[in-house]
Amino acid sequence: MSAQANRVADAVPDYLSNDRTLAAPALRSFFRLAGHWDLRVAEQRRLLGDPPESTFYKWKREQAGGLGRDTLERISYLLGIWKALQILFPDPAQADAWLRKPNTAPLFGGHSALERMLSGNVADLFVVRQYLDAQRG
Q1: What global pTM score does this model have?
Q2: End-to-end CA distance of the chain, in Å?
Q3: Spatial CB neighbours of 110, under 8 Å, sequence gap ≥ 6
Q4: Beta-ladder partners of 102
Q5: Mutual orientation of helices 69-88 and 122-136 as an angle, nearest 10°?
Q6: What percent of the chain has pLDDT over 90?
Q7: Residues 105-129 pLDDT 10s
Q8: Cα–Cα distance between 109 and 41 in angstroms, integer?
């Protein structure tokens, strides 16, 4: 194995352990967020990337577990969306309600942001976060 390949191989365990370290706080934050947004179980699972039911309930029960990079990325976007809403709307209830309200912005086509986010594509979470970041300047 070349020296460069050895350096990459040596870095992989550290890289993966960082994902494991983030899993518990990410899950705690997600389930707290799901409570604020009054998300149904099906919506929560969809936003997390449709994990198997048994995995989802294990995450919910233990608030820990192995999360893939996709799931961590999804939670990161969701937390960014929550934070942007808190900045845009000083009233927390108004911020949480915005997610379900129909939106006339071309990005949403009269549908709610949550409907867009529930498409299942991580890119839609990114687009909603980008939209909110642009709105707050």
Answers
A1: 0.83
A2: 49
A3: 102, 103, 104
A4: 112
A5: 30
A6: 73
A7: 999 999 999 999 999 899 999 999 9
A8: 25
Percentages of the chain per state (helix, strand, coil), in multiples of 5: 70, 0, 25
Distances (CA, A) of 136 to 2, 42, 71: 48, 30, 26
In angstroms, the Cα distances linking 54 to 43, 74, 116 are 16, 19, 26
Where does 37-112 have alpha helices with state H?
A: 41-47, 53-62, 69-88, 92-98
Question: Residues 39, 61, 48, 75: is their CA dihedral positive or negative?
Answer: positive
Q: What token pair was written down for 69?
A: 């990079």
What 98-107 contacts at long range (C-beta under 8 Å, 24+ apart), as own/partner pairs, is 99/37, 105/131, 107/131
